[in-house]
Structures are given as structure tokens and as C-alpha cells.
Amino acid sequence: MATLEDLGVSAFINILSAFVFLLLFAVLRIQPINDRVYFPKLYLAHKRTHDHSSRSAVRRFVNLNICTYITFLSWVPGALRVTEPELIAHAGLDSAVYLRIYTLGLKMFLPIAALALLVLVPVNVSGGTLLNLKKEVVFSDIDKLSISNVNPGSNRFFVHLLMAYVFTFWVCFMLYKEYSNVAFMRLHFLASQKRCADQFTVIVRNIPRISSHSTSETVDEFFRRNHPDHYLGQQPVYNANRYAKLVKKRDRLQNWLDYYQLKFERHPEKRPTRRTGCLGFCGREVDQIDYYQARISELERKMASERQKVLNDPKAIMPVSFVTFDSRWGAAVCAQTQQSKNPTQWLTDWAPEPRDVYWQNLAIPFFSLSIRRFLISVAVFALVFFYMIPITFVQSLANLEGLEKVAPFLKPVIEVKVVKSFLQGFVPGLALKIFLYILPTVLLIMSKVEGYISLSSLERRTASKYYYFMLVNVFLGSIIAGTAFEQLYTFLHKPATQIPMTIGVAIPMKATFFMTYIMVDGWAGIANEILRVKPLVIYHLKNMFIVKTERDRERAMDPGSIGLGENLPTLQLYFLLGLVYAVVTPILLPFIIIFFAFAFLVYRHQIINVYNQEYESAAAFWPQVHSRIIASLLISHLTLFGLMSTKEAAFSTPLLIFLPLLTIWFHKYCKSRFEPAFRKYPLEEAMEKDNMEHASEPNLNLKSFLANAYLHPIFHLFEEAAKEEETVEVRIDKAQKQQHHHRQEEETHVRSSSQYHEESHLRSTHEMHYHHEESQYSRSTQYHEGIHVRSDMDSPSPPHFVYHYDIQP
Amino acid sequence: MATLEDLGVSAFINILSAFVFLLLFAVLRIQPINDRVYFPKLYLAHKRTHDHSSRSAVRRFVNLNICTYITFLSWVPGALRVTEPELIAHAGLDSAVYLRIYTLGLKMFLPIAALALLVLVPVNVSGGTLLNLKKEVVFSDIDKLSISNVNPGSNRFFVHLLMAYVFTFWVCFMLYKEYSNVAFMRLHFLASQKRCADQFTVIVRNIPRISSHSTSETVDEFFRRNHPDHYLGQQPVYNANRYAKLVKKRDRLQNWLDYYQLKFERHPEKRPTRRTGCLGFCGREVDQIDYYQARISELERKMASERQKVLNDPKAIMPVSFVTFDSRWGAAVCAQTQQSKNPTQWLTDWAPEPRDVYWQNLAIPFFSLSIRRFLISVAVFALVFFYMIPITFVQSLANLEGLEKVAPFLKPVIEVKVVKSFLQGFVPGLALKIFLYILPTVLLIMSKVEGYISLSSLERRTASKYYYFMLVNVFLGSIIAGTAFEQLYTFLHKPATQIPMTIGVAIPMKATFFMTYIMVDGWAGIANEILRVKPLVIYHLKNMFIVKTERDRERAMDPGSIGLGENLPTLQLYFLLGLVYAVVTPILLPFIIIFFAFAFLVYRHQIINVYNQEYESAAAFWPQVHSRIIASLLISHLTLFGLMSTKEAAFSTPLLIFLPLLTIWFHKYCKSRFEPAFRKYPLEEAMEKDNMEHASEPNLNLKSFLANAYLHPIFHLFEEAAKEEETVEVRIDKAQKQQHHHRQEEETHVRSSSQYHEESHLRSTHEMHYHHEESQYSRSTQYHEGIHVRSDMDSPSPPHFVYHYDIQP
């Protein structure tokens, strides 16, 4: 156990490293060459563009203005200057509410820390148990400030009990205020939002197949019958699985083509060649540029025919559809009610934003869904409690004797001393590190298997899985030594009343550990977050080797996102630590407060300048944050309960029992009071917005506004490419098209023309017959939307859009 | 522990007593004098009427037809002859589905019993452990047939494991089939139901108070704005608290008046008199009949003014309202969606049937509701686990030494030997008996405090509370000796893995106890149910002392109802016993099968001939039945798990772990698959029925149909009385009324006239302006409805309708 001095040293090191990171950040961020690493959001929002002209060659890369180096915290006022409404407009409500979690932490823990340090620390210090026992047990100095210093059976525990009540009430009060604030912000945000396609759209899943009808006809008939007054149209979902694969392949070939063309430009004397045989070693020699051009054009022919197939084949339409209504009221009604007599068919729900849709999961049928959820919940349980088993297995393999047994021929290599020490010292740790690094991805994949249909819900589900992992393996794992599996065994074989005692006794002893944890994981981690080492390195590497055009440079930017999947559980862990230690070892609280304050500044800066908003869920994650903090409160009560019962404070049992009961009631009340605001959309609101819209824009053509809003992004992508590359040809083609409308032999036309045509065909087939001329203008804004969506799609890292469906039987 | 012979004796006694009950029933039911005890349902359904004329005086009371005495089971074919559709038409879907629980039990346990007796019993008998150990422990013969007889560590346990899987799959299969059947029956029933007010009505709670508006205006405005196409009207709910009290008081006085008038008729020579002073001993002497007549007329003046106040005072209107729509579709939409931005206001839900409404709970505000639910759940927990504490306290008071200490002056009385033995032997048991007798009532009151607004939901909630009590105190309490509180203490202080072991080991040893329990509580209890001893006695007592007219005789009938609150948990306990013992001691299964078969016959007979249907919830209790049987399955797995682990069958752990997991998954699947059919109303269905109705009755006046359907029964009562007593005067008054409509001074008119007028005023004020003349005819059917409702209200026993509100601030 660490003494105060040890802790001081640790704090010094961590503060120093954080300081160094900040200093580095201060220097790097003002170099123009790093502009796209530290301000990608501004580029995405078109608030900053690269200007080539004005500056000299050196100044384009290095900042020579000495003045700007002086104030290394100059980013802080900039981060604070932006008001909350501006922030919402700039980065969305999700980001703004995410930052409120930090301010909630500050508002919660500042008064608690003040009270605890003023009241509990003096009580603990004057308790003086440990001073008497000094000879027997070696206690740290920290323990003098904690509850461990109070004599068993002392009346001083009444003070702790009182404080536990005061803290719980304060936390509940703050939680209530914040929940009501966030709910209000959400409703206000939704009310003031401009017209969006998702307000009018409902996603319908599990559409029954009727043999004589196509899916589109079935949907149309069903909604015309059951929502006669408000049904507008529908957007079928295509199975673009194979097509997406082809697109991916073409992109890869295009990359190679670009590479060789660049090579040729640099060395015009020699055209790059290759052999066609295996691995390029044998076979006929061909010109690389010609070869790839030929393959690409061949692939594009294939793509065209595949696209035709997707659009014309009724079997390519999935049993899922985006149904649009002529009013928000109609959509709200449809989303909240049960449609069919068979409760597993015609499942309706709010459509996520178009950019938020996770296309692959759309077609999972109901039965499969229920099996998937069940299997994944078993898998998560196994992962949380038994994850050490495969890792230990890998580690034992890396164990030298084991390795020698498995592969005796390696013996001479292993016996070399350097190799041996490397293997022994590094590999076992590496296995665990790699596991922890890929864990969020694994959890995300698990959530995907569960079948959620929007990125936002996927992230929320990932966050909740990660929370369980952290709770068991970081919190309980640190308190009770041993793996989670051993803990599970202990818990199953100990009486229920013993468990809180075991935890309660260990809690004060682990305070210094958690302080160090907060400094390493919290302080230094946040400083690392602002420096963005990984994106910085990757960007410059890409810039050196890949980037050719301004457009490539834009693609090389990796703005990233807030990463709710990882950050929410981390934050929730800090809340847990703060609440558990508030009564037990209040000296831990300042560490948490510094974390919250520092992280608030950093994340505010990053949200303004760096992160790209992938979707807007209007703070849909708040109920989760709220209930996790409530769970933390309950855990803190339980540990206090256990601790008190070992301290022979018999009076505490009946007094403490009310705390968890009241907390549970508070939670239930909040849930019923606020949660509907996050799950449902009130008709009052919908009607109000509908009426306002009718009054202000009586001639609004909603059909054209909604047409294609929920088209699969792969088609948008195509459409956009066609527009971008050969706009002139399209214009010419438009005239032709009006002559021979709907003629299939147009496939033989130039590529872009036929593409464009198919797009328009696609539009006209889906019960959304509107005038081509009239809607041309309104559609142009949509193309812009399409581009926007696509810029997300194309960013290098996200694995979300693999452009294919799982087709379930 | 009982041997086979003991069990045989017990079985003989119970079968004999059941036989005696049946014989008594066979004799009593064919006596005309008992007709209204054994066939009240037929009287209520007007399928049987009392005929005075044809028979002689003796034959009117006693059946002298010898032939009818011979076949003492003659009621059985009659009970079986009725088909299910007839049963639904006669007694409602609830009753029919309730009977399906018994057939489900038979379908489930007959094959299980056959398989278990054929396979498991031979395996157990040839196991032969106990024979070797005979000298050490005394085992009963039953144990030779049970799993206890198998050697620890034997491979024979694989058979038991296999059977556990087979039984679980069979039970799940039957449950699935039954759930789907019941869901289909429910949907079919709702679809084929004739037009009811509740199909068009939504109950709105927590209407916000707007100072400048009355509640009615607020409701009207809100729904006109947010449901403009379908909103029809509303029925405000009045605070008839004081008025209901006055009605009750008048009824009491009227009873006295009737009594004295009867007395005077019998002895016309002497008018009954009394003194006005204290307890009738001093003061002026008055004529009793005059006295009560004067008091009644005074009270009726008060009632009239109170009624005026209720109808005219805007504060008497509660913040709750029944809102009607012009189509089922509109009502379905409103019931299933969120209305207001504030999720605690404008809470909408399906309106229960008018006869199902529990009026007192209508006005409980949201916040109070959440506190009530929380407090009651704490109270139920306390009741289940600590109910022995107050009883032990009462018992210790009844303890002689204790009593002598508390009241020393009683010493000489207590010391008398007879009194002493009475006190010692009888009183302690009496306290427990009284508690168990009033327990369902206590639980019902608790459910009422929770704030449920329909009788059906109150009964369901009572059932679930009672189930917890039975599970802990009957099932666990019998297995682990000691009070529930002691069990709780044991469970908290034992490791989690030890608990199933403790239960598992005790399970086979308690088999004989539960067999006896099934015989006493099940067999004899059912025989007692058919004999209806209590209603028989009470009816004849009433008939002797109170009944004067045919109408009184109708009131004296106590048909009772199925009593889901008590019967569902009892049935669920039998399912639990059957499933737990299926693998362990299969010889118990025949006892349960006999119970199910016998109870099925008896309840079928009772439902056809006796019970009065209080409401129709369309089998809304089925999800509860289903999930309780699933819970029983899980408990059976857990006990088997514990039992196996003590039997050193190490292989069983990994094999058994899948059973509960699969069961949980099955439950989740069924829940999502079928439960929406019980909670929501599909729009498809609503639209279909609306369209059919429009086609068949294009000129239907829905407003007049819905007017006053949800008027507080106290007003219906009044209206009806007015009509019945002074129809002529009303007719005259009608002409007057048309002349000076809406004049307040009509209060001075004769009572009935003013009453009638107020009724019409009541109608015309609530946004349901319709032609008086036109609707007169349609209303007449409603009066009939009103009478029907009232006949429930007036039946002597039910405590549900106390005719007052709790007004919450």
C-alpha cells in the first residue's frame, strides 16, 4: 500500500507527462502542416479551407510566428468561449449533452468533496484507531484520512451515515435536475429541428411475403388500408450485397491504377509492367495501366448488370421498408402503435436518420433476432467472467517450456538469451494488451450480431456491454484480487451477506490504487486524447505516400468521433469510484474532480475542432447514463453496508436499509417521469409542428422532399459519382432520356448515362411518381445530402459500412 | 415420514370426504329451495325463473322425485355437454380460458406421468441405495420409487437428466401451443364482439389544471387539436364521494323503515315506537315509521342539493376523463401513443369496460401513484417474509403467562380449567387461521392502494401477490422447516450454491407431505367448492329473516365469481409441484392429475350454473399464467441441479445448465411473440371492424350510443330508481321540462321530477348534445344496461363499490 509520498511521486510523474503532452499539443497544433489533424471538424464544416497562395513554402508547413508559441494553454478560452446553443448547432445535441456529463460530475462532486473534506476527514483523523495498532499492521498515511481510522463500534459512524444520506440526496437532486434539463433540451431540439426525412418516416420490419404480390405492393396495400389519411409512400430496401462487393473491388483496382499512373507520371520513361501469372513471377508481361483499366471497365460492366438485377428482381427487395407519411402526426401514430394482428409481423418503429441506419441488419427476421439476442447475452456473460481463460491459454503457450514442448525445433532459437527475456517479459502482457485494445471492437461486433438497426443504438449497446466488463474486471477485479472467474466462484460459494462485507473491507485499502488509476488512465489518457498521436502519425504517413489531390487529403483526415461506446462506460466508472469513496476515503474525490474538469476542457475543444458527428440521436443515451449513476449509488450503499457491519456499527443496518430503497424508488420515478421523452414522440408536438409547417409553407411538395431519402447509400454513391465525373454527358442524356423513357436497351449507352437513367428509373418505380422537371431543383439539395453522407462512408477507418446484407431465410 | 400405508389411509379419508360432499351436493342441488344457491347464473341470465304456481307447497321446497336421487354424478355430463363457444357466449372468455388452465395441466402432466411412471420408477426401484442403508435411516416406501433410491454417482442419473430435457421440451411445447391458442381466441373474441363502449373509449388521466378553463374545456380543446379527425366527445368523472355516502345512509334508513313497516304489518295493533334520547332509553317517545320516513325525506332533500352541487361545481370534476372517438382506429391510436410533451400528463390507456372500472382510483395523480406502488411492494415483501411476527405476537399474548401479566385481574377466570385449555389449544391456531382467511382481502386492498383502475387488473395484481406468498410460505416453507423469516435469514447467510442444494435434498423427502396437501387442499377443497356451504347457509339465513319480495330474494343470491385472485396462484402452485416432482418423485403426478381433472369438472359446472361474470378482460390474465409456469420450470431445474450435485453426479452440471437458459430464451420469445396481443390493439383489426360497421350500418348514431356509457354508477342508480318508482310523474314532467329548460328553480318540484331533470341536464352539459326525442329509444336499452350494472352493485357482498373517491391534492 502506498504512502502519501509514493502517491505524491506518482502524481508528479503523471502531471509532468500530462504537461509534456499539453506542451507538445500547443506546439504541434499551430503548425499549418498539422491543421487537418487538429481541426478536421472545421474543414468538414467548411469553416476552414486550405489556402495555397499567400504563404511561402516553409510557412505552409511550419509556424514561424514566435508569439503564438508563448501561451501554451491558449486553446482553453477558445474551447470555453463557444456557448451551448452554438455548440449544438455546430456539433449536434449528442455532443453538447455528452459534455454535460462532465459538468454533472463537477456539480455533483464539488460540494460533496468540500463537505467530505471539511467534515469527514477531521472525524476520521481524530478517530485514531490505526495509531494504536501501528505496530501490528503497516498502514499508509492515506488511511489516516479514511474511515479505516475510526474505532470499531464508535459513535462517529453516525457522522458517516448522515453524510451518506446527504450525499445520496444531493446526487439524486442533481440527477433529477439534469434529467429534466436534458429531456427539455431534447424536446426543444426536436421541436426546433428543421424538416428532416426521419420525422416523416417509419421503418417497417418483418413484412409478410404474400405469394401473388411483390413486397412493395403488399406494403402499399397494407398502409393504404390501415392509414388511409396519412400514408404517403415507401422506399423499399434492396439487397445490394453483391453490388456492394463489386463496388469495393472496383475501388481497390482504381487505387492500384492511380498508383501506377502516379508512378508513370514521376518516371515517364518507363511504363510499369507486370506478369499475369502466379504472384507476378511468371506468365505474359502486360502493361499495368492498361491491365487495370481493362479490369476496371470489365468490372463496371458487371456492376451495371448487377445493378439492373437488383433494381428489377423482385426477390432483391427485402421484407423491410421505409414508409413515409404526409405528416409528423401520421408517422408518430404509426411508429407507436401495433399494426398487425400477428405481433411479429409489420413491426413499426421510428426510422433512424438516413446516415444513422445500419443497413446490414435491416432484414433480420423476428425469430432469428430473438435467438441472436439470447446468444449474445450468454456470450457477454462469458466474456465478462471467463475472458481470462483464452488469454491465460495464449500466455501459457507463450510460456517457454510450453512452447518448447509444442515445437521442439524452436528450442535453439528460444534459448538465445535476448529472445528468451523478450518472450518471457513481453508476450504474456502483450496478449492481454491486444485483447483489451480490440475489446470495444469485439463488443461492437457483438452488438451488430444482436441486430440493432442504427449506429446510435449499436454504440449504446456497446457502451452497456463495456460497462459490465469494466465493473467486473476493473472495479471488482481491483478490489478482490483474482480473475473475474475466481470472483464468480467466490461469490457463488459465499453467503449473500458476506459479499458486501468482503467488498466493504477491501474498499478503503484500495483507495491509493484507484487514485493512481485515475491519474494514469484519466489525466494522462485525456492529455493523450488531445494530442491525437495515432491520427497524427497516420495522417502524415498517408500524406507522404498516398495523397495526390486535395480530395485525397480530405479522405486522409481522420476526425474520429466522440466514441460513446468506450467513453460512456469510462465516465460511469469514475462516477462509481467517486460515489463509493465519497464516504469511505474522501481524499480520492479531488482526483476525480480534476479529471472531470480537465476532460471537460479537452473534450469541449475536441468536439469543436476535431470530432465529426456521425449521427444525431438527440441525447438518446441519457437514460443509460442516469441509470448507471443510480446503479453506482446502489453499489456505494452496498459497500458502505458491508463496511459498517465489519466495523461493529450495529445501529447502521436499519438506518442504511432505507437508502437503497429510496434510491430505487427515485429511479423508478425518474424513469416513468422522463424516459418516455426519450422513447416516444408526443402527438401534441407532432401536431404543432405539422400545423406550423402548413401555415408557413402551404404548397410544400413533401413527396419530392422524401423521395430517395432512405435509398441505400450505395446507390447514392453511384449517382453522385456519375454526376461528378460526367456532368455534361448527363445533361445531354437528359434530353435523350425524355425521348425513350423506360427503355432497357439503354444499358449499352455510356456508363454514366445508363447509371443516371437507372437512378431515375429507380425513383419512378416506387410509387413516388412526381414530375421530373419540377423536382429537379429540390433534389439538388438532396444530392448535397448524399455527398455528405458519403463523406462519412468513405472515411478510412469506420468498419460500419461494409455494404452488404445478411440475408436471413 | 409417511409410509405407503399412511398415505393410503389419508387418501381414503380424503376420497371419502370428497364423496360425502358430492353426495350432499347431489341431494341438495335438486331441492327447489336451493335453486338460487346452485343455479344463480341461470337466474341472472334469465334462463330460469321462479314459478310459484304449478307445484304444491311441499314440492316448492323439497324434491320428492325419487328418480333424480339415483345418479349422484348426473351433473357431470351436463357440465361437459356445453361446448367452448357456448361457454364463451354464456360466461365470457375469461371463464372459458380459465378452464383451459386445467386442460393445459392435464395435457401437460398426463404424458409426463405416463413416461415417468414407465421409465423413471423402474430405474429408481432398481437403484437400491436405500435398501442397503435401511438400518441407519428410516425411509418410507414412497422413497423407493423416488430418485432418493438411486446410488450416489450412479450412471442411472443420465436417465433422469434425459427425462428432465424431455419434460421441459414437452412443457414448453404445450405452453407455446396454448399461448398461441389463447392469443388467437382473444383476438377472435375481440373481433367478433358486438359494439361496446370500451372499444371507442380511452381513459385519460392526469389532465393538467388550467386556471381559466374547466377540466371539460381543457380536455375538449386538447383532443380537438391533437385528434381532429376522430375525436367525438368526453365523459367527465365526478367526485361523487359525499353523494355516495348519503346514498348509503339513505339505504340504511330505508332498511330500518322496511323492517318496522313489516313489523307493523304483522302486528297491526301496535305501532313501533322509540325514544329519541341516548340509546333509546330516555327522551321523547316517537313513532318509528314516522320517524324514519321523516329522516329519509330530509336526507333525500340533502341528496338532491348535493347532486346539484356535484353536477354544477367545476371543482367536482376530477382531472380524469373518458374520451370517446368516432372509430375504433382513433381510440386505438390514442390509447397507444404518448399525447403530451410532459410524459406525466395526459396519460392515455384503454378504458376498461364500464362494469370493470374501479371508480375510487381514477383520480390518483402520477406522483402519488409512484410512491404507492413503491410502498406496496415493500409492504408485500414484508408481508411475505415477516407475516409470522405479528401472529407470533398475538399468539404470545394469548399465551397464559403473558396474558396474566398484562391483565392480572383476569387471573381467576383464566385459571378455570376449561377456559385455560380453550385458550391454550385454540386461540394460537385461531390467529393464524384468521390471518390466512383474510389474506386475499388484505392483498386486494393492497392492490387497490396501488391505484389500479379496473377490477380485472386488481384481481390480477392480487393473484400475483398471493402467488409470492404461496411460493415462499407453502412451497419453500414446507420444504425448509421454519418461518419465512428464518428462511430469509438462512438464504442470506448461506452461499448461493448451497441454496439449491438445501432445497434439492429436502425435495424428495417432502413428497408425501405434498401428496397429502394435494388431497386435503385440492380434492376436498374442490368438493367443498361445489357444495358451496357458506353461500348456502347465508342464503337460507337471509331468506328466513330479510327477504320480503322476489327482488330481495334476487339480492340474497350470492353467485360469487371465479375468484382469480385466489384460484390462479393455487393452480400455479400445483403446476410448480407437478414440475418439481416430475423427475424426483413421479408417483406424485397422479395426485395432481386427479386434482386437475376433478377441478376441471367442478369449475366447469360452477361456471355454467353458479358464478356471475363481473367483468370481461378477454383472458388478460394468460401472460401471467404462462410466466408463472415458466418460473415453475426454472425452479424445478434449480432443485434438480441442487439434488444432482448432492448425488455426486458431477457430469450433470454442464448438462443441466442449458435447461434454464433455453427456458429463459423460450419465455422471452413467447413474450415478444404473443404478449402484444394482450397489451395492445392492432390497427389492422380496428380498421377492419370500423369498415365493416360503416358498411352494415351507415347511419349509426355513435354519439347517442356512447353517451353516458361511462357515467358514474351512482348516477345510473339514481336515474333508474327515478324511472322505476315514478314513471308516470316523469312522463308528465317531460312536457313541463321542454317548456322551461335549464331552470334551476325546478329543485322545488316533486323529488322524482327534479331528479329526472338533473339527469337530462347532466347529459346535455357534456358536449353530447343530441336530440332528446331521437335518442329516447336508444337510451332505453342503456337503461337496461344501467340496471344490469346496478344489479352487480347491489349484490350484498362485494366491497368494491363504496361509491366515493380519494381526492388527491
TrEMBL record, chains A, B:
Domain CSC1/OSCA1-like N-terminal transmembrane stretches: 7-178
MF terms (GO), sorted A to Z: calcium-activated cation channel activity
Extent of Basic and acidic residues compositional bias: 743-776
InterPro entries for this protein: Csc1-like (IPR045122), CSC1/OSCA1-like_7TM (IPR003864), CSC1/OSCA1-like_cyt (IPR027815), CSC1/OSCA1-like_N (IPR032880)
Protein name in UniProt: CSC1-like protein
GO cellular component, as recorded: plasma membrane
Membrane topology: Multi-pass membrane protein
PANTHER family: PROBABLE MEMBRANE PROTEIN DUF221-RELATED (PTHR13018), TO DEHYDRATION PROTEIN, PUTATIVE, EXPRESSED-RELATED (PTHR13018:SF98)
Subcellular location: Membrane
Assigned keywords, A-Z: Ion channel, Ion transport, Membrane, Transmembrane, Transmembrane helix, Transport
Residue ranges annotated for the CSC1/OSCA1-like 7TM region domain, each copy included: 372-644
Protein origin, superkingdom: Eukaryota
A Pfam family recorded for this sequence: RSN1_7TM
Domain called CSC1/OSCA1-like cytosolic: residue spans: 199-361
Region annotation Disordered: where it falls in the sequence: 734-782
Family per similarity comment: Belongs to the CSC1 (TC 1.A.17) family.
Major subcellular site: membrane
